[in-house]
Protein 1
Amino acid sequence: MSVYTNSIWVASIVTVVLSFVLFVPWLIYTYRKYSFLSLSKTVIMFSFIFYFLAALCLVMLPLPETRDTCSLQSANTIHYNLRPFQFVADIMEDSGIVLTRPTTWLYVIKQPAFFQAFFNFLLLMPFGIYLRYFFNKRKYWKRALALSFSLTLFYEVTQVTGIYGIYNCAYRIFDVDDLMLNTTGALLGFFLAPVVWALFPSHAAVEAKAAEMVEKDIVKPLSTLLALVIDMFIAHILWFIVSVVTGYTDILEFIVKFVLYIILFGIVPSFTQGATLGMKMMGFTMTSEENVVRRSWRRCVAILATVSIFEVIRILGQIKLDMDSPFYVLQIVLTLMAFVAFVILWLVIVIHVVRVIMSGGKRRLYIDEYAQLVATRKNKGGV
């Protein structure tokens, strides 16, 4: 049992790591496609990732401690079973089960071979359930059958080839019974899936809500925040390239970033009627009752002012004087004040962002409020 729990534990750790890596791209995808974060689809997608990794770990772990697995086996070791229903014979062997005596049938659940076959049957059942959700219709059962068989065949080939040559001998056998049991379990899961997915909103319900969001031209605050994060990320990537090429940091960093912010938040929206690169990726733009380009530059100024304030605080906090200097006490005071100002400013921004997100669209980011810009998915343009 510890083998199974260890495999699931490994899958859990990998899933957590992948979740951190994939969550922002997933947010971008779902907001761009549906205009809102579908909690049901998020739960389904990340649970599928966990299941897929857990199944893979259960099949492949534990790995041998040496690549020379041939040295751990006898020369006549058989690495495959091509006889269908061999698991039935394994269960019946020395089990004490007599088919003409029903009272002995319960002995079957005490056989290790039964549990191995039963777990193989259950292994891909969730895969069939997920396939039913992704395909949405029962008529695609043949596709589900083909995909399930392909997945279990991949598992068996991976094992019998020693993970494609990493190990010089197979560390688990190729079993035709596993192919049958895995595929049958997945197909049964495909047909039983509606019982599970009845607990979640359907594709049609999510699509209907997405259409309503587009019709009402609703852009959630998280979309505008993600667009801002994307733009900031682009700026930092460009700065990283510049720093690698030039080898300079410190004051040059601030100057280059300042110029990049002007390009990304001022010049680019001037040519796209209010949309930054991040907004383009998120599928919306900005509109205003006045000239959008002028208002976009106003938004750029607000961003530059915020960045400059943080830079001034950083510079004040990094002032270093010799202890013999008559201004040493002043330096300590400035450093302390800079730290307090930094914490307070960040706290104010975080509280502001949380209030904007929790408002459900009733509030805007302060940079948009100052510029009098409103997010829209419709191609309106400015006056």
Protein 2
Amino acid sequence: MPHYSDIQGSADSNGQRLSRLRMRRRWTQQRLATETGYSLSAVKAFEQGRRSLDRPAVILTLCRALDCHPTEITGGPVIPPTSDHDGQEAVAGVAAVRRAILRHGRPARPTEQEVREVDLHDLCKRTNEANRQRASASFTKASRTLPALLRDLQVAAEVSEGDDRRTAFGLLTSAYECAMQYLYKLGHVSDATLATERVMWSAQETGDPLRILAANWYDAGEFLSIGEHDEAGAIIDGALSSISAIRGPGPAAVSLKGAFELKASLNYARAADGKSAEQYWKRAGETAEQLGEDRNDFQLQFGPTNFAIWGVSLPVEMGKGRLAVERAEKVKLPEQYSPERRSHHFIDVGRAHFYNGQREEALGAFLTAERLAPQATRMHAGVRETVGTMIRTQKRGQLAEFGTRLGVV
């Protein structure tokens, strides 16, 4: 059995990809440091894998300087190890989901049998099941469910009329959202962006103002992910203004308002405006208190629990590990919360511990996340980068075994 010091990473780190991008521009490390405002020692540590390059705000700063897309640094799509049979099957299903998304907007050309078999009640059950699979991080099951479901919903939307047509488009919007999340989690970012465009289009066809606003939540996320903070902010501000104009808003509108306030706080956090990020997070807390319950309108979870969870993830975005850990100690996750969402919380907790130099605690949180949602955790870019850094700088038995499951050693 090899000694841990002999184990070498088999997968590229974010730092290695950063180094290649820098050299492609024929820049020195000093030039990159000057262009980004980071120190020369920080750039060297990133490239050598001694410092985890996992925070989106840092990655976006480097991307702006190098004029590249974030995935050129973070890598992707993720290819699971051959030993991860479920992960391999989940990834294998991407092509079929992609084909179904590409057919959007084209004539469905349904057969007579397909037209006869349109059943909106059954399609609603199937759409809910697909979203349940996604929320439980069962990507393998989702990869089997989504292609046929998207096809059947596209047919239903084309052949239905009146209220049935609006209902069909509402279900199609939800299925596209499910596909978008599935593709994003597997690292197929460009396909996920295409799915987001489908979400926007199909939501418009429902004629439901709140449904259309909910689609804008994902649209804002697209701009936020590439560092276009002004564009993301404009979408968020527009949505909040529209919701504020609603007289006597019901719970769904209040929940949507809170979701956009959290999105605004994330946008400011990644733009390195900590004061505004905290301000919008506190606004979301007031909205959660007004709502008084956890809701999942339009697949956008919001309520007191979600507010508390974001209280951990926002400091992580800004590299404030101590504050994140302090807040995490107060978070109580209900059992009915989805495994995917619970696992993401523990991923944030693990990253917070890592920022504090608490590596054993970080590994423990990551392993908890893996138990809750194995595929989602193993394919999470932040987990892979952080664990890779931990292995390169301090190899240990359980850590190395986890790295093997992630495919980073």
Protein 3
Amino acid sequence: MSHPRDVLLGAQARTGSLPVCDHYSGVEARMRKSLQLQAEMAQEFGTCVFDVTLDCEDGAPVGLEAQHARLVAQLALQAAPGARVAARVHPVDHPAFANDVATIAGEAGHRLCHVMVPKVESVDDVLQAERALDRASTARVPLHVLIESPAAVRQAFEIAAHPRVQSLSFGLMDFVSAHGGAIPARGMTSAGQFAHPLVVRAKLEIAAACHAHGKVPSHCVVTEFTDTAAMQDAASRAANELGYTRMWSIHPAQIRPILQAFAPLQEDIENASKIIAAAADADWAPISFDGTLHDRASYRFYWQVLERAHSTGRALPAAVQRWFAEPAAFS
């Protein structure tokens, strides 16, 4: 029997799905702890539920960028089998960019799930990053890009259309700062970022650009990392109101609230399971379920509910478990 992913998503399925949480750390001790936590939670949930992105842009001490890049490469190589490890390099116009890519992708490209490029302003920046990656490694490492200015937001659709780009992230702090005080400081808070029209507009443009081209929109940070309620609320609003399917974490305490906010409700998982199982039994022809007609358009929606449930570590009903029967990460 054909796999639902191939039947319903087609070419889009080849891009794969991403964990809903992307966790950033740049200090050596925290990078090591993040990789250990990733392994522990993969055992707990039976799948890798968040990426670990090792950070050069904010993590490298000034003047020691080359040493930090070597450390990131070493940590990626030392990560457990099945670990999803990425690296954020410096912007393409930074003096350390070329060495970051040459060192990290050159030594550990085959272990990277993606490379994050910050402060991308246009497709030209994407092309420059792609050329640097191709010079450094034969591995086709996906690019994730960080949109951080009004000009970059305007280019979001063109950037998302590039085939090497897998995900777009929104850089809240730099975006607000780029407005020269026109957006108040509250626009950088967990609540204010959902209230200011310019910030909300930018988030919506990025999400729309991603969905137009089958890419993953990744929501920005919440800096009040000790406020679990604020984190939970922001993650829920990003997922339910703005169309984001992934979010940044900058503290281990933020990971579980993100997983919870982006996970489907159990009743939705049960309903999706019944519909997909019935559709498979009908060889994906239209069916009537509880008096409602379903076809491949709705099947696609319900299959993606199940994929999101699996990626957030939720238990799946027996009727669909066969399609997710893969070895757990770090096993």
